[in-house]
Model the fold of this input.
Amino acid sequence: MALEGFGPAFAFWLLSAITLISAGGVMMARNLLHAVLFLIVTFIGVAGFFILLSAEFIAMAQVVIYVGAVAVLILFAILLTPRSARDNSETVWGAPAALLSIALAAVLIFVIHDTAWSETNSFQAPSVEDLGRALLSTWVLPFQLASVLLTAALIGAIMLVRSPEEEAEDALS
Amino acid sequence: MVPLENYLVLSAILFSLGVYGVLARRNAVLVLMSVELMLNAVSMNFIAFSAYLDPSRITGVIFAVFIITVAAAEVGLALAIVIRLFRNRATVNVDEAAILKW
Done:
Protein backbone atom coordinates (compact mmCIF):
# COMPACT_ATOMS: atom_id res chain seq x y z
CA MET A 1 0.00 0.00 0.00
CA ALA A 2 1.01 3.62 -0.15
CA LEU A 3 3.57 5.14 2.17
CA GLU A 4 2.90 5.68 5.89
CA GLY A 5 3.39 8.65 8.20
CA PHE A 6 3.03 12.41 8.14
CA GLY A 7 5.13 13.09 5.06
CA PRO A 8 2.86 11.45 2.46
CA ALA A 9 -0.24 13.13 3.93
CA PHE A 10 1.48 16.52 3.78
CA ALA A 11 2.66 15.82 0.24
CA PHE A 12 -0.87 14.81 -0.72
CA TRP A 13 -2.43 18.05 0.51
CA LEU A 14 0.34 20.19 -1.00
CA LEU A 15 0.05 18.42 -4.36
CA SER A 16 -3.74 18.64 -4.36
CA ALA A 17 -3.54 22.38 -3.65
CA ILE A 18 -1.08 22.86 -6.53
CA THR A 19 -3.09 20.67 -8.91
CA LEU A 20 -6.50 22.15 -8.14
CA ILE A 21 -5.32 25.76 -8.18
CA SER A 22 -3.55 25.33 -11.50
CA ALA A 23 -6.47 23.38 -12.98
CA GLY A 24 -8.71 26.24 -11.94
CA GLY A 25 -6.20 28.59 -13.53
CA VAL A 26 -6.57 26.72 -16.85
CA MET A 27 -10.27 27.55 -16.77
CA MET A 28 -9.87 31.10 -15.45
CA ALA A 29 -6.94 32.43 -17.50
CA ARG A 30 -8.09 34.79 -20.24
CA ASN A 31 -4.90 34.40 -22.28
CA LEU A 32 -4.56 30.97 -23.85
CA LEU A 33 -0.76 30.93 -23.35
CA HIS A 34 -1.24 31.38 -19.59
CA ALA A 35 -3.77 28.55 -19.66
CA VAL A 36 -1.16 26.24 -21.24
CA LEU A 37 1.39 27.17 -18.56
CA PHE A 38 -1.19 26.38 -15.84
CA LEU A 39 -1.89 23.08 -17.62
CA ILE A 40 1.82 22.19 -17.42
CA VAL A 41 1.75 22.79 -13.65
CA THR A 42 -1.34 20.56 -13.41
CA PHE A 43 0.45 17.78 -15.32
CA ILE A 44 3.44 18.01 -12.98
CA GLY A 45 1.12 17.88 -9.96
CA VAL A 46 -0.55 14.73 -11.29
CA ALA A 47 2.92 13.22 -11.85
CA GLY A 48 3.61 13.95 -8.17
CA PHE A 49 0.49 11.98 -7.24
CA PHE A 50 1.76 9.07 -9.35
CA ILE A 51 5.02 9.08 -7.37
CA LEU A 52 3.01 9.24 -4.14
CA LEU A 53 1.11 6.15 -5.29
CA SER A 54 4.49 4.47 -6.01
CA ALA A 55 3.97 4.30 -9.79
CA GLU A 56 7.31 5.89 -10.69
CA PHE A 57 7.34 4.73 -14.31
CA ILE A 58 3.97 6.35 -15.03
CA ALA A 59 5.17 9.53 -13.32
CA MET A 60 8.21 9.62 -15.62
CA ALA A 61 6.04 8.91 -18.66
CA GLN A 62 3.66 11.66 -17.55
CA VAL A 63 6.47 14.21 -17.32
CA VAL A 64 8.14 13.16 -20.59
CA ILE A 65 4.99 12.76 -22.69
CA TYR A 66 2.56 15.30 -21.25
CA VAL A 67 4.90 18.07 -20.14
CA GLY A 68 7.55 17.40 -22.77
CA ALA A 69 5.45 16.59 -25.82
CA VAL A 70 1.75 17.36 -25.42
CA ALA A 71 2.19 20.78 -23.79
CA VAL A 72 4.84 21.82 -26.31
CA LEU A 73 2.59 20.63 -29.16
CA ILE A 74 -0.30 22.69 -27.79
CA LEU A 75 2.02 25.71 -27.49
CA PHE A 76 3.06 25.21 -31.13
CA ALA A 77 -0.57 25.07 -32.23
CA ILE A 78 -1.35 28.29 -30.35
CA LEU A 79 1.67 30.07 -31.79
CA LEU A 80 0.79 28.91 -35.33
CA THR A 81 -2.62 30.57 -35.08
CA PRO A 82 -2.55 34.38 -34.89
CA ARG A 83 -3.11 36.55 -31.88
CA SER A 84 -6.80 37.09 -32.50
CA ALA A 85 -7.47 33.39 -31.86
CA ARG A 86 -5.97 33.45 -28.37
CA ASP A 87 -8.93 34.54 -26.30
CA ASN A 88 -10.45 32.14 -23.84
CA SER A 89 -14.02 33.37 -23.57
CA GLU A 90 -17.08 31.35 -22.65
CA THR A 91 -19.94 30.34 -24.89
CA VAL A 92 -23.51 31.22 -23.97
CA TRP A 93 -23.60 27.86 -22.22
CA GLY A 94 -21.15 28.99 -19.50
CA ALA A 95 -23.56 29.07 -16.57
CA PRO A 96 -25.44 25.83 -17.41
CA ALA A 97 -22.10 24.08 -17.98
CA ALA A 98 -20.81 25.27 -14.59
CA LEU A 99 -24.00 24.02 -12.91
CA LEU A 100 -23.76 20.69 -14.73
CA SER A 101 -20.11 20.12 -13.81
CA ILE A 102 -20.75 21.07 -10.15
CA ALA A 103 -23.66 18.62 -10.10
CA LEU A 104 -21.43 15.94 -11.68
CA ALA A 105 -18.72 16.52 -9.05
CA ALA A 106 -21.32 16.38 -6.24
CA VAL A 107 -22.77 13.09 -7.50
CA LEU A 108 -19.30 11.56 -7.95
CA ILE A 109 -18.17 12.64 -4.46
CA PHE A 110 -21.39 11.28 -2.92
CA VAL A 111 -20.93 7.93 -4.68
CA ILE A 112 -17.26 7.77 -3.66
CA HIS A 113 -18.13 8.30 0.01
CA ASP A 114 -21.11 5.96 -0.18
CA THR A 115 -19.14 2.98 -1.54
CA ALA A 116 -17.45 0.52 0.81
CA TRP A 117 -14.01 0.08 -0.81
CA SER A 118 -12.39 -3.30 -0.05
CA GLU A 119 -8.79 -2.16 0.26
CA THR A 120 -6.08 -4.80 0.00
CA ASN A 121 -2.93 -4.90 2.08
CA SER A 122 -0.28 -5.73 -0.53
CA PHE A 123 2.85 -3.84 0.35
CA GLN A 124 5.22 -4.37 -2.55
CA ALA A 125 4.85 -1.90 -5.40
CA PRO A 126 5.30 -3.29 -8.94
CA SER A 127 8.74 -2.63 -10.42
CA VAL A 128 9.37 -1.45 -13.97
CA GLU A 129 10.44 -5.02 -14.75
CA ASP A 130 7.02 -6.34 -13.65
CA LEU A 131 5.37 -3.71 -15.81
CA GLY A 132 7.46 -4.67 -18.85
CA ARG A 133 6.76 -8.38 -18.38
CA ALA A 134 3.03 -7.74 -18.05
CA LEU A 135 3.02 -5.51 -21.15
CA LEU A 136 4.78 -8.13 -23.29
CA SER A 137 2.92 -11.21 -22.01
CA THR A 138 -0.67 -10.64 -20.86
CA TRP A 139 -1.20 -7.32 -22.60
CA VAL A 140 0.86 -7.89 -25.75
CA LEU A 141 -2.07 -7.54 -28.18
CA PRO A 142 -3.26 -4.16 -26.83
CA PHE A 143 0.40 -3.12 -26.78
CA GLN A 144 0.80 -3.89 -30.49
CA LEU A 145 -2.54 -2.22 -31.28
CA ALA A 146 -1.32 0.89 -29.46
CA SER A 147 1.77 1.01 -31.69
CA VAL A 148 -0.41 0.70 -34.81
CA LEU A 149 -2.66 3.45 -33.45
CA LEU A 150 0.32 5.74 -32.85
CA THR A 151 1.64 5.14 -36.38
CA ALA A 152 -1.78 5.77 -37.94
CA ALA A 153 -2.25 8.95 -35.89
CA LEU A 154 1.21 10.18 -36.91
CA ILE A 155 0.56 9.59 -40.63
CA GLY A 156 -2.92 11.10 -40.33
CA ALA A 157 -1.61 14.24 -38.64
CA ILE A 158 1.05 14.70 -41.33
CA MET A 159 -1.52 14.21 -44.12
CA LEU A 160 -3.91 16.71 -42.50
CA VAL A 161 -1.52 19.63 -42.18
CA ARG A 162 0.06 19.52 -45.65
CA SER A 163 -0.09 22.81 -47.48
CA PRO A 164 -2.20 23.17 -50.67
CA GLU A 165 0.94 23.35 -52.87
CA GLU A 166 2.17 20.01 -51.56
CA GLU A 167 -1.22 18.47 -52.23
CA ALA A 168 -1.16 19.79 -55.79
CA GLU A 169 2.31 18.33 -56.33
CA ASP A 170 1.13 14.94 -55.05
CA ALA A 171 -1.88 15.03 -57.37
CA LEU A 172 0.41 15.63 -60.40
CA SER A 173 2.88 12.85 -59.67
CA MET B 1 -1.86 7.14 5.43
CA VAL B 2 -3.93 8.96 2.80
CA PRO B 3 -7.29 7.22 2.33
CA LEU B 4 -8.37 6.10 -1.13
CA GLU B 5 -11.38 8.44 -1.02
CA ASN B 6 -9.10 11.51 -1.10
CA TYR B 7 -7.57 10.49 -4.40
CA LEU B 8 -10.95 9.66 -5.89
CA VAL B 9 -12.50 12.96 -4.78
CA LEU B 10 -9.54 14.90 -6.18
CA SER B 11 -9.74 13.18 -9.55
CA ALA B 12 -13.54 13.67 -9.58
CA ILE B 13 -13.00 17.42 -9.13
CA LEU B 14 -10.35 17.47 -11.88
CA PHE B 15 -12.71 15.56 -14.20
CA SER B 16 -15.55 17.98 -13.50
CA LEU B 17 -13.30 20.95 -14.28
CA GLY B 18 -12.48 19.26 -17.59
CA VAL B 19 -16.18 18.72 -18.32
CA TYR B 20 -16.82 22.42 -17.66
CA GLY B 21 -13.99 23.37 -20.03
CA VAL B 22 -15.28 21.13 -22.81
CA LEU B 23 -18.84 22.42 -22.50
CA ALA B 24 -18.29 26.13 -21.91
CA ARG B 25 -15.25 27.24 -23.90
CA ARG B 26 -15.16 28.67 -27.40
CA ASN B 27 -11.55 27.99 -28.25
CA ALA B 28 -10.87 24.59 -29.81
CA VAL B 29 -7.39 24.41 -28.25
CA LEU B 30 -8.83 24.97 -24.78
CA VAL B 31 -11.44 22.28 -25.37
CA LEU B 32 -8.56 19.95 -26.24
CA MET B 33 -6.70 20.96 -23.07
CA SER B 34 -9.80 20.20 -21.01
CA VAL B 35 -9.98 16.75 -22.58
CA GLU B 36 -6.35 16.19 -21.54
CA LEU B 37 -7.30 17.24 -18.00
CA MET B 38 -10.11 14.68 -17.97
CA LEU B 39 -7.78 11.94 -19.26
CA ASN B 40 -5.29 12.81 -16.52
CA ALA B 41 -8.00 12.53 -13.87
CA VAL B 42 -8.99 9.13 -15.23
CA SER B 43 -5.44 7.77 -15.22
CA MET B 44 -4.97 9.06 -11.65
CA ASN B 45 -8.12 7.13 -10.72
CA PHE B 46 -6.71 3.98 -12.33
CA ILE B 47 -3.38 4.31 -10.52
CA ALA B 48 -5.13 4.90 -7.17
CA PHE B 49 -7.34 1.85 -7.68
CA SER B 50 -4.32 -0.25 -8.62
CA ALA B 51 -2.42 0.88 -5.50
CA TYR B 52 -5.30 0.39 -3.05
CA LEU B 53 -7.62 -2.31 -4.43
CA ASP B 54 -5.67 -4.64 -6.74
CA PRO B 55 -3.49 -7.26 -5.01
CA SER B 56 -1.22 -7.67 -8.07
CA ARG B 57 -0.99 -3.85 -8.42
CA ILE B 58 -0.20 -3.96 -12.15
CA THR B 59 -3.48 -3.76 -14.10
CA GLY B 60 -4.23 -0.13 -13.30
CA VAL B 61 -0.69 0.86 -14.24
CA ILE B 62 -1.10 -0.88 -17.62
CA PHE B 63 -4.33 1.03 -18.19
CA ALA B 64 -2.55 4.29 -17.39
CA VAL B 65 0.13 3.44 -19.97
CA PHE B 66 -2.51 2.93 -22.65
CA ILE B 67 -4.36 6.11 -21.64
CA ILE B 68 -1.15 8.12 -22.04
CA THR B 69 -0.51 6.48 -25.45
CA VAL B 70 -4.00 7.22 -26.75
CA ALA B 71 -3.85 10.77 -25.37
CA ALA B 72 -0.61 11.40 -27.25
CA ALA B 73 -2.13 10.11 -30.50
CA GLU B 74 -5.29 12.13 -29.89
CA VAL B 75 -3.51 15.41 -29.20
CA GLY B 76 -1.42 15.10 -32.37
CA LEU B 77 -4.47 14.51 -34.56
CA ALA B 78 -6.64 17.10 -32.83
CA LEU B 79 -4.04 19.85 -33.19
CA ALA B 80 -3.64 18.94 -36.87
CA ILE B 81 -7.41 19.35 -37.23
CA VAL B 82 -7.28 22.70 -35.39
CA ILE B 83 -4.55 24.01 -37.72
CA ARG B 84 -6.48 22.77 -40.75
CA LEU B 85 -9.66 24.39 -39.43
CA PHE B 86 -7.85 27.66 -38.96
CA ARG B 87 -6.40 27.49 -42.48
CA ASN B 88 -9.78 26.82 -44.10
CA ARG B 89 -12.14 28.96 -42.00
CA ALA B 90 -9.77 31.47 -40.26
CA THR B 91 -11.25 30.63 -36.86
CA VAL B 92 -10.63 28.27 -33.97
CA ASN B 93 -14.02 28.94 -32.44
CA VAL B 94 -15.86 25.63 -32.12
CA ASP B 95 -19.23 27.43 -32.46
CA GLU B 96 -18.36 28.68 -35.95
CA ALA B 97 -17.29 25.25 -37.22
CA ALA B 98 -20.89 24.12 -37.55
CA ILE B 99 -21.32 23.08 -41.19
CA LEU B 100 -22.15 19.52 -40.17
CA LYS B 101 -24.75 20.73 -37.68
CA TRP B 102 -28.34 20.10 -38.76
Observations:
- The radius of gyration of chain B is 17 Å.
- Chain B has a mean pLDDT of 87.
